[in-house]
Design a protein that fits this description.
heterodimer, A: 884 residues, mainly alpha, Rossmann fold, 7 domains, 5-stranded parallel sheet, 3-stranded antiparallel sheet, elongated, B: Alpha-Beta Plaits, 4-stranded antiparallel sheet, 2 helices, globular
Chain lengths: 884, 81
């Protein structure tokens, strides 16, 4: 991750103390339990930050203080800062989180934030996490993270959110939980007594009851108002008449007071305050460059502001970075255009441009983009936004990037080929396939019109410019894949591969995989194998471990489909060793163990499958690829179905459907296929007329790879119906077709399956010799790879077992469950497992990321089904029955 | 960051809003509220009236009001015939 971060944003701001102890509020803050949430929601200038900062200082609490700015809506930047903050408390955890954020792309946002929260639960020392100015956050993904954090609040953390408006969270729900402390306008407001103490301390003057009353009423106890009033009254002999004067005025109080304060300042100070107000935070160096003044100028001015107590806040111990009190800054900003109008000189836009230049030179691109946009320097902003594309795209942040680009005028995007291409890709990533074409075509046309002279148009990311033809071809290939245009995938991937320079390993790798998947979907597994093997070979030394290991995993999956179980097993085992050795965030392990479980399933070893699934789950509940979960439950469905546990199999199908995630690996058996299979086995389901027609429609043409499984079901159904000779002949023909194309495409596993199926047709036809020949052929093939599942699936149990070398042990737990009058669901079994491990309901909610009410619901169901009343009884009963 | 370039005025649905705020604002505020009319009323309120492009622009206005700690009294949509 390449972010220049400003460490000062992570420092607790040291504000001028109020010199008024606010014991009642501090007591509330201390009384709020760990694992609690503190929401400080009130308007600008009401003293929110001061209260929290003082409390942390006095209590000497360990803390992370994150001052948010508009650009922290960038998801990546947000987590970079958060992890940087955690680093100060625990280097190990921060290291883990950094690795986790690097695998962000493959595990997906939801897994990422869950893992992050799980890590936060491991903290054994208490700390306060402060998010200051949370109202600037508009990114829904960040909101989602905070909401999830609150639902599963770690035991040693207090979360403080300081904001000008209530976040869109279910606050009333939090209130009921008694963990939410709210400090609102009424709590923060100064009482008359406090106003008196405040004035006495600040002005060394005592005011009488009447004037204290007037001042309190007019400022409504507003801290910033009182502070401005104090500044206005400094050195004044007759403060009473001042108070009278401004109490009588109708003017907006801050407007009135800031005018007073500014009028008292020297012209130079006034100019400095107003001009620097365009900055969110500033250093001596930055403000010197903004004002075009020599070294030392700003240092002098800032020293003066500090002494005069003019709302300046140092952001770090070394006094390198400062900001103004936000309300004060906003009031200054509001006055700036008029000041410039009357004084002449540099415009507001120019000020922003200078700030943009400075941040740009320092490598702080998000700040630079903000200022360039504010200064309407669209070319400079566009240049920086263009350079952010690759990385934000990799981090799956197309929508944030798009939002930023949309702030540019279209005319600017239109003349930059790389930016236009990025815009097109970002639209694809956000699902607007139709809209993307226009921009991709535009980028292509721009490039083609001038490709010899890149200086003809503005390009800042030269590398992306060189890659442009390839990237655009890849985009077209992606569009073809999304619109299921197989021919288009072949055309555009080949085009993209031809156009991608030799040294672009990662890009070449990804495009080659797309081509591999296209072959795979069409059933040509050998062609897919060749592409994937070559690909892995070509890029293995050049890309990162995660990429290469995930390519190996895909290859393993392919070998399974080809029936090459031994090759698949060795690849999975090798990859597991590699991942395990180096990666502290092993996001691939869940899927790799699932791959091994699939192999054991095909070998017919149910007990081993069960063990491997358990292992897969152990990793998967922490980190997993996005397509892991549905595949995990899908294998459970197969496993249960072959044990005759149909209700549980359907239950697993239900879970699988809930977790479905679109992914490029073709599903030979889809969730829907499996559901139908189970229904048929259960004796209820029937192929619909539609399925019949689909299989029939291929007639003499060969059956497409992804329809083969349905064709197999069709054959089974005909066999179950005591069909006549003509029908048997027909399904025999289908079997032959299936066998033939499986042989041609070297899919041994499928071939064994279809041979066994064909033997059943022969059996129905009474042709026993033909039947034996088919089974012999199947056995010969099966013995090579221990691929015995088809025998168990299609033959009677006694006969099937003869073909399997090892004994197949039945799943005792599941059998025990089936004996209950109402068996537990798969989810209930998971919860029961955790109860038996001794986890409390709260711990279970955090482990499974469920709401407490849901977990309680599960408990009630479990108790009812086990016919017990208490948790301890449930544990005992579960053990007695052998459920766990 | 104000987005001035993607605003398209839909003239068929001109939205006029009237926003009432507590306290009098100075003349320089007209600039701040980008072309809206600022009227000071005798009762001490300020009324900001004018056309907003869409709901997003209206919320942008609320944000400005929020950020300056102004007290919002009422918001009315004015229908023109």
């Amino acid at each position: 991750m390449k972010f220049q971060i400003l460490q000062s944003k992570l420092n607790r701001p040291e504000l001028t103390t109020l010199s008024v102890a606010r014991k009642d509020i501090e007591k509330k803050l201390c009384d709020n339990p760990w694992s609690g949430i503190i929401l400080v929601s009130s308007f600008a200038g009401s003293g929110k930050t001061t209260i929290i900062s003082d409390w942390i200082k006095r209590g000497n609490y360990r803390h992370i203080w994150y001052s948010l700015d508009e650009w922290d809506n960038d998801l990546q930047l947000f987590f970079v800062y958060l992890i940087e903050g955690i680093k100060c408390l625990d280097k190990m955890v921060a290291g883990d989180l950094l690795q986790l954020s690097e695998s962000f792309q493959s595990i997906g946002y939801n897994s990422f934030i869950r893992s992050l929260i799980t890590k936060l639960h491991r903290f054994d020392k208490e700390f306060v996490l402060v998010l200051d100015d949370y109202h600037v956050i508009e990114n829904e993904q960040i909101d989602t993270f905070i909401k999830l954090l609150i639902e599963h609040m770690p035991p040693k953390i207090k979360l403080v959110m300081i904001t000008r408006e209530d976040p869109a969270f279910p606050l009333s729900k939090y209130r009921v939980s008694n963990k939410l402390l709210e400090l609102r306008i009424a709590d923060l407001r100064f009482t008359k007594e406090e106003v008196k103490i405040f004035l006495a301390n600040q002005l060394r003057q005592v005011i009488d009851e009447e004037h204290a009353e007037l001042l309190t009423e007019r400022t409504e106890g507003w801290v910033a108002g009182l502070q401005l009033a104090v500044l206005s009254m400094q050195g004044m002999k007759d403060i009473n008449s001042f108070i009278k004067e401004f109490s009588g005025s109708h003017n907006y109080i801050m407007d009135f007071l800031i005018e007073e304060v500014l009028e008292k300042q020297h012209e130079e100070v006034k100019g400095f305050l107003l001009k620097t107000s365009v900055l969110e935070y500033f250093s001596f160096n930055l403000s010197d460059s903004l004002l075009d003044e020599g070294n030392g100028y700003s240092r002098r001015m800032i020293e003066y502001l500090k002494q005069s107590n003019l709302f300046i806040v140092p952001l770090d111990q070394d006094r390198k970075w400062y900001r103004y009190h936000h309300l004060f800054r906003d009031l200054l900003r509001q006055r700036l255009p008029q000041y410039i109008q009357s004084m002449g000189g540099i415009t507001v836009e120019e000020l922003h441009c200078r700030a943009g230049d400075w941040f740009n030179a320092e490598g702080m691109s998000m700040e630079a983009i903000h200022h360039y946009l504010a200064g309407q320097s669209y070319d400079q902003a566009a240049a920086l936004i263009e350079c952010r594309w690759v990385e934000m795209d990799l981090q799956l942040q197309a929508s944030s990037w798009l939002a930023m680009s949309k702030l540019l005028p279209e005319s600017i995007i239109e003349k930059r080929p790389v930016l236009a291409m990025g815009y097109g890709w970002a639209l694809i990533d956000t699902g607007d396939i139709q809209g993307s074409k226009k921009w991709l075509d535009k980028a292509k046309k721009l490039y083609e019109s001038h490709y010899n002279n890149p200086e003809e148009f503005p390009v800042s990311d030269l590398k992306q410019y060189q890659l442009l033809p390839a990237t655009i071809a890849a985009a077209y290939a992606y569009i073809a894949a999304a619109t299921e245009d197989i021919e288009g995938i072949f055309i555009h991937t080949n085009d993209a591969l031809a156009k991608t320079p030799q040294d672009q390993y990662h890009q070449k790798g990804v495009i080659a995989m797309l081509l591999g998947f296209a072959h795979w979907s069409s059933g040509d597994l050998s062609a897919a194998e060749k592409i994937i093997v070559d690909n892995v070979h070509n890029i293995s030394k050049e890309v990162n471990d995660l990429t290469i290991n995930s390519f190996y995993m895909v290859l393993g999956e392919l070998y399974i489909q080809m029936g090459r179980l031994k090759d698949a097993k060795s690849i999975f085992e090798k990859t597991i060793r590699q991942v395990d050795g180096v990666n502290r965030v092993p996001s691939l392990l869940a899927s790799l163990y699932l791959g091994l479980a699939n192999i054991s399933y095909l070998e017919g070893n149910n007990q081993e499958v069960y063990g491997l699934l358990k292992k897969s789950k152990e990793y998967g509940q922490n980190y997993a690829l996005m397509d892991w979960k549905y595949k995990y439950y899908l294998l459970f469905a197969k496993l249960y179905a072959c044990e005759g546990l149909y209700a549980m199999a359907l239950d697993s199908i239900y879970e699988s459907k809930n977790a479905y995630f679109v992914n490029p690996i073709p599903d030979y058996i889809s969730i829907e296929d499996m559901e139908l299979y189970i229904q048929m086995r259960k004796g209820r389901g029937m192929l619909t007329t539609c399925d019949y027609l689909m299989v029939d429609s291929f007639g003499t043409k060969s059956i497409p790879y992804l329809v083969e499984f349905s064709a197999g079901l069709y054959v089974e159904q005909i066999l179950n119906q005591n069909a006549d000779a003509a029908m048997l002949k027909k399904v025999g023909g289908i079997c032959n077709d299936l066998i033939e194309s499986a042989k041609k495409q070297k899919r041994t596993g499928h071939c064994i399956n279809y041979l066994v199926l064909a033997s059943k047709v022969k059996e129905a036809e009474g042709q026993h010799i033909a039947r034996k020949l088919l089974l012999d052929e199947a056995t010969t093939l099966a013995n090579v790879e221990n691929y015995y599942r088809p025998f168990l699936e299609h033959l009677s149990q006694d006969e099937g077992l003869k073909y399997v070398k090892e004994d197949v042990l039945h799943l005792k737990k599941e059998m025990a469950n089936q004996r209950l009058s109402e068996p537990l669901t798969i989810r209930e079994l998971e919860v029961l497992g955790l109860i038996v491990e001794g986890l409390s309901n709260k711990e279970i909610t955090n482990q499974l990321f469920l709401a407490l009410s849901t977990v309680k619901g599960y408990n009630q169901n479990i108790y009812a089904k086990l016919e017990v009343k208490r948790r301890t009884e449930a544990v005992a009963k579960a053990r007695e029955l052998g459920l766990v | 960051m104000p987005n001035k370039h993607h605003k398209k005025l839909d003239s068929s649905k001109t939205l006029i809003y009237q926003i009432r705020i507590k306290g009098h604002l100075g003349v320089q505020w007209t600039n701040w509220f980008e072309g809206l009319t600022v009227t000071l009323e005798d009762n001490g309120d300020t009324v900001i009236t004018g056309t907003v492009v869409d709901q997003a622009a209206l919320h942008g206005l609320f944000k400005k009001i929020r950020d300056l700690g102004l007290v919002l009294i009422s918001v009315n949509r004015v229908y023109t015939k």
